[in-house]
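Reopening this ticket.

The earlier resolution said the output was attached, but the attachment link was broken on my side. Pasting everything inline this time so it's all in one place.
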Amino acid sequence: MKIYPIESGNFKLDGGAMFGVVPKTIWNKTNPADENNLIDIAARCLLIEDGNRLILIDTGMGNKQSEKFFGYYSLWGTHSMDKSLAKYGFSRDDITDVFMTHLHFDHCGGSVNWNKDKTGYEVAFKNAKYWTNKSHWNWATNPNPREKASFLSENILPIQESGQLNFIKKNEGDFLEKSELDFDIFFVDGHTEKMMIPHIKYKDKIIVFCADLIPTAGHLPLPYVMGYDTRPLLTLPEKAKFLNAAAENNYHLFLEHDAHNEIITVEKTEKGIRVKEIFKCQDILI
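Inline output:
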């Protein structure tokens, strides 16, 4: 098995929204804001090469939305899905599986493209199976008013229409559940219904793709919960359970949204779970 970081693009989000009830004077120390109160955000995906399978976890925002849409998110940097795949000798057509932790636009927007020649939407990875879970799919395709702006039909429905949609089976098991993709999954419901957190056994390590459970290294303290979470009081015990396991088992946490810290380990301190070490992806994965 080989694992590669895939940088699909960077953007900015409101720091207050990213840290919920935590005052700016506190979160600004770890995630400094610009003059518009915006903080740096990454869309760092993960590619797993395992035998004949090439599994992509999350796909970023993509590039099919309007200029007005992207104007809300202050895109920056030169990263892209295609350039990042090419860096490791791959293209979109090589991907066999696309695993979507959840269907918010910044995690699955790159799963579907706008085809100018056909004037329509089409899947961006034509040879891949796309994976979500049934509970989350139903949640995303019948969105509540609070999340409706995050679940865009053009990012979601073409996957079903193409016949490439597959569901991960959810069992009512222990902390981690086996999946059809040969890695374990922690299902969480605080951020959105049945978000999936992959745990990948890699050499002598467990690499955890943190998605929106731990967006950045600055979100480790339990009360530091995003304003975007639909059930913040449920996020608290989910974070506690996960972070205790991460500290006890020395998980390497792959941070999807932290533009400056790529992988961290954590430890228990008098103040709770905090950062132990910070790593570059190239030091751990490649």
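Reporter confirms the inline version is readable. The mean pLDDT is 96. Residues 22 and 224 are 6 Å apart (CA to CA).
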